[in-house]
Every structure is written in structure tokens, then in C-alpha cells.
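Quick start: what a row looks like.
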Amino acid sequence: MLIIVLLVCFLWNAATAPAWATSDDTLRQIHALIPSHARSYSQICQLLGQLDHASSLVTLESLGQSYQGHPIWLVTATDPNYSSDEKIRLFIIARQHGTECAGTTATLALVQYLAESSSTVPAQLLRYFEISAVPVANPDGCIAGRRTNGQYVDLNRDWGKFTQPETQAIRAAILHRRPHAVIDLHELPEANRKLSYSENFIETIGNSDSLPKLLCANTIAASHDICYWMKAYGYPLNVYYDYPGDSLALCHRYWGLNQGIPSFLCESKTGGGRSLPERAGFHLLAILGIINYLGRQHLAPTRVGSEVMTTSQPLPPPPTEIPLTLTIRLEPVANGDNNTDLAVCTQVEGSGQFGFVAVKVDGTTKLLTTQRTERYLLDTSRLSGGQHYISAELHSKSGTRLATQQETFPIPLSDIQVAK
């Protein structure tokens, strides 16, 4: 529970002006807004209507209707007294899959706080930000308790095709608002045993010469910031990266790889005793981490004066770095008739604290992990024949690289013993 209570304080404590600091009262208010159980679709609609009337900072509109005729609501939190063209615009999408409620819960808690809090924080934040959110992108699936929409289509495989009214409506809204970042909130089923789905993860755009430099710089730096925050507040996290050639059918890839907008897929792991408040807390921390990053990048000191967010790393460097040991091990894994998967096992030993481990293949970052032990499955089918190398880099909380280990491997993998 302590993690949930402290979730939002980092955003405001990162600011230099006392007016941005969040009081204990406000933190209790945020915590109280996260229910223990998911709301029904009718309860969500009722809450959105209440928030629309609660404050001039929050407005509600319908983007259209789902296949079965339910409204697709867009809620926007901003100060209407300041021009939208000059603001930092964030677009959040939750519940493309009807059974995944944590993203909706996190989004509603944030908007409810911005609408109802008597603190000065919402007004100060929303002078510079426009936060738009679709709390339920799939009303049909939410009502029916299924993953797909009313036509049994997986909405997060419809981007680029846009065969469904839900993706068509959300696409039009994003193009109209021209956001500085898009966040897509999802949940990982407990039963899914895929190695990369074993823990909370965020997927975003990796560094590539064929992509806009500013896009890559923003997604890489923001993902590093999020790692620091997740580590500080006790959330396990892996970060994966997308590159040109990856399928554009997923929402965050469409907006990132196709449209050049910094985009983030956030997946909270279900099961294992993880409560709804804990899973929603993961999404809240990701959202606020991205808000914090955008603020530091776009709010110039000459514009916001004493209210500018800090430009330093969110966590200060420790007085001394405690030595840690990093090891890396490669294990080819049988994959049907073709042995194309390579398990990259990293382990951090020692009592010291660290920020994250970065795994790179031929210099390209594939994974960030905040976990001491991680087993990442690399698909080698796209790699050319010959020798390749994998490196693991251990970074401190302050971003300092503490250690590096490297291994080489051949393509094809026939020369390495295959793990069963």
C-alpha cells in the first residue's frame, strides 16, 4: 500500500518550486481514488459524467460509437484559459482489450484527482499540459467481459487497417490533437507463459538511423527515466524496443514507427497476488514518469519561471557506488524445427543498489530490466550469418555505467548446445 500512496509524489517533488510539492493530504486523496475492484462500464460512464461537471479543467466528449453502439468517451484535463497549441499534449488509451481493467482504473484515478482536488497542483500542471484519455477504448468487450470488440476483432491488431469504428474514432482524435506522446495501457494474463510476458513491461521505439533522431532520443531517454522510478518504488520492469520492420498492427507501433510520435505500450502483469490497486499503480507511475519527462524536455525556464521541473535525473547519484558483479550467459532454446531463439541470461550479484541492466545485440538495445536476474529470449531469425555479439551493461541509479559483459555467438546457432 505504501507504494500506491507515494506514487504521485515524485512528479511534484521533481519541481523546484514549493508550490508543486504534493502534501500528505493529496497523496491520501490519490490513494482513496483507486478502488479495490474494477468498475462496470455503466459505473465508469457515471463517474466520467460527474467529473465533467466537477471542474472546468475537465471536459468529456464522445468520439463516436462502438460496433454495438456504445459511446467511445474521450476525457480531457487542461486549463481552457491557455492555448492548447502551446501546451504539452499527452494522449492515453486504455482497455483496447475489454478484460484489462487496470489501465482504466489508473486513468480515472488521475483524472478524478485533477478534477476534484482542492490542491493548487492540478491548476499549475494543466496550465502547461493537455492530458486526453480514452478510458475504455473497447466498450463492447468491457460490457461482455471479453478481449475483443462486438465483431470479435482484437482492436490492438487493427491499427493500420482501421476496419473497426473504435480504432477509426481514436485515430481521428489523435490526428486532431497532435500529441507529444501516446500511451497505450494493457495487462498481461497470468496464464501466458511467454518469457517476455513473465513480468511488467513497457515497449517503446528503439534507436534507429532510419527513424527521426528526436523520436528515438525521446523514447530512449523517457524509458531510462521510467526504469529509475519503477526501481525506486519497487515495481519489477522490463523495457523492450521496436524497430523498423516490426508489425504496425499494434497501436503504439503505428504511432511510433509509422507516425513518428513517441509512443509507449505499458503492460501490467496479472496474477501472483497482484491486486487491482497495485496493477493500476504501475500504470500511474508510467504515466506520471512520462509526464515528468515531457515537462523537463518542453518547459523552458524562461517560460515557466520558478515552476519549471528539474532537468536533472529523477534520482540523485548515491554518495558512493557499491561494487556489483554482472554476468551474462547464452543458451540456445529449441523452437520447433528451427533453433532460432537464444536465451540471454543476466544476473547481478552484490548488496549494492543499481538502476537497470541494458542488453544490446550488435550495439542495438533490445532490453532494459530492473531485475537482478532476467532471462530474455532473442529471436535470431532476422540476423545474418556469421559472428554476432551480445553485451550486458549495468547502470547505477544515477545513470553511471558500472560494468559491461560481452559474449559472441554464431548464426546459425548449430555450434552451441541447445537447451531443451
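That is the whole record. The longest helix spans residues 276-298. The chain has two domains: 2-307, 325-415.
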